[in-house]
Amino acid sequence: MGHLAHALLTPSSMDSAPSWGLERGPHRFGELRRSVDGISQKTLTQNLRNPERDGFVTRTVYPTTPPTVEYALTPMGAEVSAYLTALSAWSQADFSRIRTARDAYDTRSLDPVT
What we know:
Elements: H1 3-9, E1 27-28, H2 29-35, H3 41-53, E2 57-62, E3 68-73, H4 75-93, H5 95-107
Antiparallel strand pairs: 1-3, 2-3
């Protein structure tokens, strides 16, 4: 699941991710687009298709002029959202451990296999 799809399913306090999530209720396409600074309509549409295809998100089109499109979590999307929220909270709380592991990886010397 991509970063944007993760952001759609869960709330986030990370600076690089949107601060909204579908777990708070359905959102119109325009609301989602305005919440992601600089995203094009095409990119947002493409990033919403995979969670919809996977059964995490529903897309409802209302017969208005212009058409109103709304996205919402399915029960399965709400279930996975809880796990993603927990993973996000863990990674934010333990980022120093992740950074330490990255630093150790980046500074290691690779010995040839003999």
